[in-house]
Write a structure and sequence with these properties.
Layout: H1 21-33, E1 39-43, H2 50-62, H3 87-94, E2 100-103, H4 121-124, H5 127-132, E3 141-146, H6 153-164, E4 170-176, H7 184-188, E5 191-194, H8 200-210, H9 216-226, H10 230-239, H11 241-252, H12 260-271, H13 274-295, H14 309-317, H15 322-341, H16 346-361
Parallel strand pairs: 1-4, 1-5, 2-3, 3-4
Helix pairs in contact: 8-9, 9-10, 11-13, 12-16, 13-14, 13-15, 15-16
């Protein structure tokens, strides 16, 4: 599933950041102390606001420390917020700030139809020289790498060289969904700040703001599916993920005997679109993982997305032990992953995933 929709809020232009006040405070304290680390590793699951925080930090630093002090009598700044009318905000949003650079995956063609699968060394070449230049508009130069996990070995080594010899008044912000995939030497040269999934209420609030067309009950269900990721929630809302999930659970409710004609119709529909297939692959694996957690007696308190879902999972997990549920989850995950890698028949993959559960749940 795409982590963001094209029409969703961009971190470049997002003015608010909910649920990560402690991360903001950590940066503000470092800034006010005068001992600011030259590189920050911003970690956490996809879609929870890591890039939004990175852009907030970049604007704050490029504006010389924000728009005001910490209250009526001045003092250290108490927020990273920069208003959308501020010149720095506008230039960062447009990509026109002379002291600001973003490193991210490049497009595969001039028509910008598809992104490359990784950040190549050509994408990071020149970062060191850029940071070494005298700032043109203020006291700092800032680079965001989004996401650092997507760098290949060569580009990671190029960034490491910059981190080993950081220029004066240069700040690097590395966004990372999976910090364990980064070189240990990169991690060791960054100050790490970890963002946690948003509270469900915050996801509902943000979803209602950006997608006011989504009914309140659906927003609650989508927030539960998204597990603290507003990016995932917006993707699910835009791709019809909740309806897809309801159909999927409806079919699973017939286990251990599937409705074969309904399953074939569902497979035909899902196989027709890239987004539908990828969304189902995540939702299906997620549902099986939750069922496995129930089998292991460690997932009963996570709440239902649909009424009666918890009872369905308890009924099904009684037919097999935890080891077999984990085995089927691994098989289904590999099955969906292979779909794009070797161009397998998508409908057949959907059918095989459901049939694997049918075999597992037979008495």
């Amino acid at each position: 599933m795409p982590p963001y929709l094209d029409d969703g809020p961009s971190p470049r232009t997002t003015t608010e950041l909910l649920g990560h006040e402690s991360a903001e405070r950590a940066f503000l304290d470092a800034w006010s102390s005068g001992r600011l680390a030259h590189a920050w590793l911003i970690c956490g699951p996809r879609g929870i606001g890591k890039a939004t925080l990175a852009y907030r930090i970049a604007r704050f630093v490029l504006a010389g420390g924000g728009e005001g002090g910490g209250g009526l009598f001045g003092g250290p700044p108490d927020s990273l917020a920069i208003g959308p009318d501020h010149p720095v905000f506008r230039r960062v949003a447009s990509g026109g700030h002379a002291d600001f650079k973003v490193v991210e995956r490049a497009w595969t063609d001039d028509k910008k139809t598809k992104l490359k699968t990784e950040i190549a060394v050509d994408d990071v070449r020149g970062v060191g020289a850029f940071l070494s230049l005298t700032p043109g508009e203020g006291g700092w130069r800032v680079v965001i790498v989004d996401a650092a996990d997507e760098m290949n070995r060569s580009s990671a080594n190029a960034i490491l060289k910059v981190l080993e010899e950081p220029p004066r008044n240069a700040l690097m912000l590395l966004v990372s969904h999976s910090p364990g995939r980064l070189l240990p030497t990169i991690r060791s040269r960054c100050r790490r700040v970890s963002l946690t999934p948003l509270p469900e209420a915050s996801v509902v609030e943000l979803l209602s703001r950006h997608r006011p067309d989504v009914p309140a009950a659906d927003a609650q269900a989508i927030a539960r599916l998204a597990e603290g990721s507003i990016g995932k929630a917006l993707a699910l809302a835009g791709l019809g993920g909740l309806d897809l999930y309801r159909e999927m659970v409806g079919l699973l409710s017939g286990l251990p005997r599937l409705d074969v004609p309904a399953l074939h119709a569902f497979g035909d529909k899902v196989a027709r679109g890239d987004d539908s297939f990828r969304t189902l692959s995540e939702l299906f694996a997620w549902w099986v993982a939750r069922a496995a957690a129930v089998a292991g007696r460690c997932g009963a308190d996570k709440g239902e997305v649909m009424a009666g879902e918890a009872a369905l999972q308890r009924r099904l997990v009684d037919t097999a032990g935890l080891d077999r549920w984990v085995e089927v989850w691994e098989k289904i995950t590999r099955l969906f992953e292979r779909a794009d890698a070797v161009n397998l028949d998508r409908k057949q993959i959907v059918l095989n995933a459901f049939l694997a559960l049918e075999r597992l749940c037979r008495p």
